[in-house]
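Supplementary Methods, section 5.1.

A reviewer requested that the exact input to the structure prediction be made available. We therefore reproduce it here, unchanged from the version used in the analyses.
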Amino acid sequence: MKEWFSSKELSSIAGMPSTIQGVNRKARAENWTARKRAGVRGKALEYHIGSLPLNVKKALYSEEESANYIISPIEPLQLWMTAFEQLSADEQSIVSSWLMRNGIKDFITFINKQKKDD
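The structure derived from this sequence is encoded token-by-token as follows.
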């Protein structure tokens, strides 16, 4: 999470002064922790999140972009293997025997019948 915010960033938050000068004035009055902004000429300051008012912190946290997760689709064979590996040895034996005896077509028919009964 970002820790330091410029006056310009803070001026866009509801409940804060709408100008950079207003934010700086509020920061001085409330004694916010500040540092000079790197790479900027003049007296540009940024303020540490720890010294900001609670409502501003909440607004900043809610504006933070959510993490994006990339989930690869699972191949049917991999899904089957993962599910099968989670069975006990006895359960694996029962499933294997049933499939060998009845075949996959009967297995699918059995599953579909179970769905209808639920």
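The helical segments are 7-10, 20-30, 54-63, 76-85, 89-117. These observations are discussed further in the main text.
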